Amino acid sequence: xxxxxxxxxxxxxxxxxxxxxxxxQDLAAxxxxxxxxxxxxxGAALAGLTVNLAGYAxxxxxxxxxxxxxxxxxxxxxxALCLKLLWxxxxxx
Length: 93
What we know:
Helices cover 76% and strands 0% of the residues. By secondary structure, the chain is mainly α. It has one domain (3-92).
């Protein structure tokens, strides 16, 4: 979705001498899309697994509210864990 932003950032940083070497810029730019597609696939799989395990498997007894609550909780934990792990590193800088 935002590959062009990553590519421009890669090229802009390369101009300062701190970025990707010129002969590897195409490889670095294509890796942005690869990582984004992998993250999308992982997120979709985690969402499907969470909702199915929470009871939204279809049929007359499905609990949509419970599945939505679990989905929100699971996807809230990932950013919270990242903040917990990265906060001390940001304080060191």
